[in-house]
Write a structure and sequence with these properties.
The structure is a homodimer. By secondary structure, chain A is α/β, with parallel strands linked by helices. Chain A contains 10 helices and 15 strands. Strand 7 of chain A pairs antiparallel with strand 6 of chain B, so a sheet runs across the interface. Chain B binds a DNA duplex through residues 7, 26-27, 35-39, 41-42, 45, 57-58.
Chain lengths: 256, 256
DNA sequence: CACTATAATGCAAAATACCGCAAAAACACG
DNA sequence: CGTGTTTTTGCGGTATTTTGCATTATAGTG
């Protein structure tokens, strides 16, 4: 049992427990912090009012407790993805060593490769690995490590190090934004080093981008844009938006 | 296992199971959450009123009958697998470090764990990794390496070495046959060393076996049968067939 | 049609929530 | 240091929710 004299501190601890355990029970909190259940109830009401948790009978639950599987989660860009992924998949040639980054776009590419492709493919995503195993003549190497639940990839130093052991012909970046001046950016800090490794270990570097990712800037800087050799994007993107990328020497593939 | 004391929490878990399995059965839910069927019925009624599921006699179904793209490579033993995997999954406890071998049976176990399980899980199978990532409170470690297409697992020296870096509480063997005298055998030579590592690095060693694998002998010898601590098998298996395993000190769990 | 499993309904007990109020503590300020 | 104010807390009383049980009704099955 702990002594808590600051009501705010207690609320922080409640939130912390909620994050850790996925739920909090009013009666347990009352006992743990040696305060009446009324006090706990008030705490929970306040936190609920601040939209930090969801109040339920007997305790509280996180705001977003349940999500479907990752590969069903991403329903965005359903119209353009097939076209983009098909165009991107055509950049692969027999005999190449291919590196796959994470993300739903790359998963889409991985399931749209030529059926008779002969190649070796390396990936950090178990979903992509499963898709790749469908190709009889593709050797699949899965890069292990601790898995990131959000992006469905292994990341961290171990994975990065493994990637650096390959000298690949081509890689498909899972990027969150590419801006001509700011460069390649990511929303996942743990992934930054891994993406850098992909870029450095690969001859061709492919970024397959829906229109909204062209010029977008995510929180974490990865590398300058001229590290990319090919951008695959939608046909609808106006030429003037693409010009700065061409200037950087990036080949543009307009899908569909 | 965590007790469910919040009504809303139970309802969310029901919805989660519904998304995952495509159906829920009132009687099973009642047993799982240790509440009366009346309570479950009320839960289902509420959720149905909120248009979150479709109420049917004996349980409930999703509103959209389309199921997710879960891999179902192995259509064998479809009747007994749910029972076996459920019985096997009950051997897992909160806080454990779990090693998963390959095989469809283990995949089935991985997708039938308690939804609120807190544990760390290590696997060589990308399919199992995907299933495991569905559990919010399970840390997933994917063991990388060259992938075996047939068994859908990474194997080889690299994977074996990684496995030896863990000291696990429990492991689920993906075995092809267990004979009381011949021992544990496998049909995949590359997997032999890896299975040995699983056994040696783990306290409890679980073999989940359909009736036809009990007493079966595959080409490659892995280890003697007494390395197994628990065999989970079908209820229909006669006691005299199990006796030799009991003599070896193996605990038998008869499912269903 | 009979038999079983599941559902619906009403009810009572227990747990939990809500409301108002007052004591206690913390705080601001002259 | 004293005083007034605000915040936090606990308590009593009442309302609401949740749950299990008993009873009656209904659906599924052969």
């Amino acid at each position: 049992m702990q002594t808590i004299d600051l009501c705010q501190e207690r609320r922080e601890l409640i939130l912390e427990e909620l994050r850790r355990n996925g739920k909090v029970v009013a009666a347990e909190l009352s006992a743990r912090y040696s305060v009446s259940e009324d006090t706990i109830r008030r705490d929970l009401s306040e936190l609920a009012a601040a939209k930090l948790l969801k109040r339920v009978h007997g305790g509280a639950l996180p705001l977003t407790p349940s999500r479907g599987p990752y590969y069903e989660r991403d329903k965005q860009h359903l119209e353009v993805k097939p076209g983009l992924s098909l165009a991107a998949s055509r950049l692969v040639k027999d005999g190449q060593l291919i590196l796959f980054g994470g993300g739903t776009m790359n998963a889409e590419i991985a399931r749209n490769l030529p059926l008779d492709l002969r190649a070796t493919a390396v990936t950090t995503s178990p979903l992509i690995a499963l898709y790749l195993l469908e190709y009889t003549h593709v050797e699949v190497v899965m890069v292990g490590g601790h898995m990131n639940r959000r992006e469905l990839v292994t990341c961290g130093a171990e994975a990065t190090e493994k990637i650096r052991g390959f000298q690949a012909d081509i890689c498909f970046l899972g990027v969150c934004g590419v801006h001509p001046e700011v460069g390649i950016t990511s929303t996942l800090y743990e992934e930054v080093e891994l993406v850098r490794a992909l870029i450095e270990q690969s001859g061709e570097v492919i970024a397959t981008l829906t229109a909204d990712k062209l010029g977008a800037i995510a929180p974490f800087f990865v590398a300058s844009a001229d590290n990319i050799t090919h951008i695959v994007t939608e046909k609808s993107v106006p030429e003037e938006q693409l010009a700065p990328y061409r200037t950087l020497g990036i080949q543009i593939v307009r899908a569909e």
